[in-house]
Amino acid sequence: MNKVRWRRMQELFHEATELPSFEQPAFLKAACGDDEDLIGEVLAMLEQDARASSLLDRGLSDVAHESLDDSNSSSLPVKEFGPYQVLRVLGEGGMGVVYLAKRPDLGNHVAIKVLRDAWLSPARRERFASEQRTLAQLHHPSIAQLYDADTSPDGTPWFVMEHVEGVPLTEYYRQHNCSISERLKLFRYVCEAVQYAHGQAVIHRDLKPSNILVKNDSTIRLLDFGIAKQLESLDVPVEQTMTGLRLMTPAYAAPEQVRGEPVGVQTDVYSLGVILYELLTGQLPFDLCNLTPAEAATVITEEEPGKPSARVENGNAHGSSLSKTAWADLDVLCLTAMHKDPLRRYRSVEALIRDLDHYRDAEPLDARPDTLRYRARKFIARNRRPVSGAALAATIFLALIVFYCVRLAKARNAELSEAARTQRIQRFMLNLFQGGDEIAGPADNLRVLTLLDRGLQEARSLDNEPAVQADLFEALGGIYQKLGKFDQADSLLGSALDQRRRLFGSDSTEVARSLVEVGLLRVDEAKLDEAERLVRQGLEIYRPKLPAENPRVLWATTTLGRVLEERGSYDAAIKVLDETVKLQSKSGANSPELAASMLELANSHFYAGHFELADALDWKLLELHRQLNGDRHPLVSEDLINLGAIQLDRGHYREAEKFDRQALDIVQEFYGKDHPKTAAAMTLLARSLVYQKRFDEATALLQPALAIRERVYGNVHPSVASTLNELGNTASIQGRYDAAAQYFTRMIEIYRSVYGENHYLLSTAQSNLATVYLYQKDCPRAEKLFREAIDRYTRALSPEHSSTGIARTKLGRALLCQNRYAEAEVESRAGYEILVKQMSPGVSWLVSARKDLAAEYDALKRPDEASHFRAELADSTKKSNSP
Q1: For site-directed labelling of 542, which of 317, 565, 781, 851 has its Cα 20 to 30 A away?
Q2: Confidence of residue 42 (pLDDT cuts 50, 70, 90)
Q3: Which is more confident, 464 or 219?
Q4: Which long-range contacts (CB under 8 A, 24 or more apart) does 624-630 make?
């Protein structure tokens, strides 16, 4: 036998093993043609493979399956994967086995997918790994989440997913006797999940009802990304010829898939069209039963499906309740999505969703012929009573006919303009990511800055489409802002604002949106006066035009809360944000918008000294962000940082370090090592190390963090001051007082420049500089700065805030240093009483306060009180040294 034929036999064998046994002969017939000898040889290999009984010939999935069978011995060892204990088999396919499992330490149930016979096919192993990578990047409430992944000792890969207790989409609507409206609602949820995947550059390629489970609460989960395609990676060739059918379900496969042509987002649009067809009619558009693969391919690529309305007429009570006009629109929805030519389908899932919404609201479909008669009929359907009254009045006042015609024409033009605007943005996004080839997808070497430069170049060429240009300027400006490129962001967001003022007028909601966006940029630039002014202007425009619960108003209100928080106006921020959270919580749904408002509310409570409230909110946020975005999202890192900050303020430095290290790991993985978000996380981790006197480790984090922040924000910015603070603390504790004084003096200059004289952060910098003067025995100079800091802390935070308490204990030490014992006792005791209610007994601030109080009471000849504080000091020292 020659090498070419043997290689061909191996290829066919590996491909056939992925199919159920009853499909293998038909597959080989289609693949081998008239070569009966080749068919017989491969069938013999398959028969021998099916009889294999040696443990060495079987994959881990088979052994695990057998070990879970009640009829088999329990001695087989494969009953767990890592920390997960297998309970039973959920399902098997050509590629793998899925088990239901439980993690005892957490008590949650999961689904574990195991690759069957991992060593047989490198291609199959790569597809399994690709599915794992795809799920890892998708974080959407309607997509089953990836939790964990590993490889067994024998090399078999497996990964852990969310276990979804639900039924397939078509089974659900039959069990619950759903109306057409309810089916369309479920279908829209599916479309939203697919649209999200496309936004992450992922094409599913095997959409079908069995991959869409509906839970008891009517929420859906999209499953099985086993043959999903990453648009960024085109180095793996698309499957060609009829063998491509094995990687898809033919009944839902698009013609280009069957022909082995390149696929794009329209491929999933086609499959969605088939699913919609089945939801509406209870039948598939093509009957492929008993057809060979070649015959099935001919039907899919050449035959036209019948209209859904013609297939649903008999025996469907829900379908018969719809009018002919409604069915005509549903026919258009289905058949446009299922068009043989990808370019004639909906250009994106977003476009399909938009027409679903048009149908729901009795508005003209974008896919319908754009005739005045059609739009007039839809307008009348939505406004039947007013139009009837107008028609009656028209017999008396002929002039009203002209009025309504003009009004209708304006509405038509507005709809056309909006549709053209949306289509232009879609075309821009396709060109941006695909480099002009909207079917094949983008090149695999695109970088973010390359995309931005390409997008900016195209956006600037749209002078004849100013509304679209403004939208694109805003979107690109937001991306530059997130990358820390504030000059480019300022230019683009400013251009969008100017453009909208010219187009829509200064009091339009479009201008309000731009004002809030520019306000957000000013927050990042630490220009807080201007930020508050811009955001308040936007809200003043929004409020008379939109209800309080409108998402745009809530977004702008959350932004105002953030500005007030950054300014140190915590009570005002809490009032604004608390009301926003209440409005967003009315629906009962967890959303990214609600999470954003809760995050700012938690931060404001923390800075106001309400640690218990902040801690409770941060734990809720951690759970919410993990639910919405997965475990490795930057928003999860923010929650971990906030939880660490609370532990730090309570004196639990090791616990704070644990939270901060987890956060840095997530941020660095997401943003890279040279990003301002990474620098912020490094600074916070260093702070917990400084308190543990691990100065070398802290400095190794702080120096690069300072360089990153100065490069991104410039030399005068609160973020730079935050890192300077930790460098100053490190130098001060190490006895490098001149260096520490330089760091803290620069902090004071930054805070005065950004915030003026009333922000509490200025007190923090002054208090730290005063501490350096204490170490240098310049006690009168330290006293002056401590008194200024306490006065500002009391006004900006509260008399009972922990920062006020720390400053008062330090003022007591400055007075003790000057032998002013009675005054010193008053301040030391007041600071101690504030801190002892909020911090652990062994915290350094309390230890220092007890020492000072014992010395002060000795000098004041009050030995009983001195003994009391020495006993407290000894007890706290003993507890901190105990294991």
Answers
A1: 565
A2: confident
A3: 219
A4: 624/590, 624/594, 624/595, 624/598, 625/595, 627/141, 627/590, 628/139, 628/141, 628/590, 628/591, 628/592, 628/595, 629/139, 630/136, 630/139, 630/145, 630/146
CA 829 to mean position of chain CA atoms: 48
Residue 58 predicted with pLDDT over 60:
no
pLDDT in tens, 481-526: 877 778 888 888 998 899 899 988 999 999 999 999 999 999 888 8
| C-beta of residue 750 within 8 angstroms of C-beta of residue 706 | no
CA–CA dist 694, 690 (Å, integer): 6
Name the nearest CA neighbour of 762 among 810, 730, 721, 726. Answer: 721
Which two three-digit tokens encode residue 561?
A: 């809360």
Comparing CA positions, the residue from 588, 605, 594 lying closest to residue 642 is 605
Contact yes or no for 716/750 (Cβ under 8 A): yes
Within 10 angstroms of residue 166's Cβ, the number of other Cβ atoms is: 19
User: Model confidence over 110-140: pLDDT tens digits?
Assistant: 999 988 765 556 666 777 877 787 787 888 8
CB 783 within 8 A of CB 789: no
Question: DSSP string spanning 602-656?
Answer: HHHHHHTT-HHHHHHHHHHHHHHHHHHH-TT-HHHHHHHHHHHHHHHHTT-HHHH
Q: Tell me whether strands 202-203 and 229-230 are parallel, antiparallel or unpaired.
A: antiparallel
Q: From CA 337, how far away is CA 352, in angstroms rounded?
A: 7
Q: 14-50 as b/e, with b when 16 or more CB fall inside 10 Å?
A: ebbbbbeeeebeebbbbbbeeeeebbebbbebbeeee
Cα–Cα distance for residue pair 330/336, rounded to 1 Å: 10
Torsion angles phi and psi, residue 168, rounded to 5: -55, 155
pTM over 0.70: no
pLDDT of 247: 52
pLDDT tens-digit map of 721-757? 999 999 999 999 899 999 999 999 999 999 898 888 8
pLDDT attached to residue 423: 46
Dihedral (C-alpha) 501, 504, 505, 507: value to the nearest 10 degrees?
Answer: -100
Both tokens of 664, joined, read 């840095």
Segment 320-324 shows an average pLDDT of 76
Of 458-472, 671-685, 765-779, least confident by mean pLDDT is 458-472
- pLDDT band for position 445 (cuts 50, 70, 90): very low
Residue 505 CB-density burial (10 A; 0-12 exposed, 13-18 middle, 19+ buried): exposed
CA distance 76 to 73: 7
User: Is the distance from CB of 113 to CB of 134 less than 8 angstroms?
Assistant: no
Listed in sequence order, the DSSP H helices in 395-527 are 399-434, 448-460, 466-482, 486-504, 509-524
Instruction: Choose among 696, 698, 669: nearest CA to 684.
Output: 698
Contact (CB, 8 A) for 286 and 299: yes
Q: What is the largest CA-CA distance in the chain?
A: 112
Percent of the chain scored above 90 by pLDDT? 37
Q: Which two tokens stand for residue 558?
A: 């959350």
Please, what's the b/e burial string for 229-244 (b: 16 or more CB within 10 A of its CB; e: otherwise)?
bbbbebeeebbeebbb
| Terminal C-alpha separation, the chain | 73
**Using H for helix, E for strand and C for coil, what is the string for 186-245?**
HHHHHHHHHHHHHHCCEECCCCCHHHEEEECCCCEEECCCCCCEECCCCCCCCCCCHHHH
Task: Measure Cα distances from 180 to 220, 252, 327 in Å.
Answer: 17, 21, 11
Cβ pair 842, 813 in contact under 8 A: no
Position 624 pLDDT exceeds 50: yes
Measured distance CA(374)–CA(523) in Å, rounded: 49
Token output for 743: 């760091």
pLDDT 10s digits, 571-604:
899 999 999 989 888 877 778 888 889 999 998 8
